[in-house]
Specification:
about 0% helix, about 70 residues, mainly beta
């Protein structure tokens, strides 16, 4: 199971890198390109450890702890 896409309205391309089977999601990162070609990167900040009972959840908060920059 993967997270529901948390795609910004202005995004034309979204790429996410997270390990859905690993309870340690601290190294997850994602980026998007907007319609004008600007690049926005967000990496998980600090630790993000998920209880094994919640690994199959699709809530984006289970995958990401850092929002995209504005």
């Amino acid at each position: 199971m993967f997270a529901r896409l948390d795609m910004p309205a202005q995004a034309t391309v979204l790429f996410e890198s997270a390990s859905p089977d690993d309870p340690d999601r601290s190294s997850g990162w994602r980026f998007y390109l907007d319609q004008s070609g600007c690049y926005y990167l967000a990496r998980n900040h600090g630790g993000l450890f998920i209880d094994s009972a919640r690994l199959d959840g699709d809530d984006p908060a289970l995958y990401w702890n850092e929002p995209f920059p504005t």
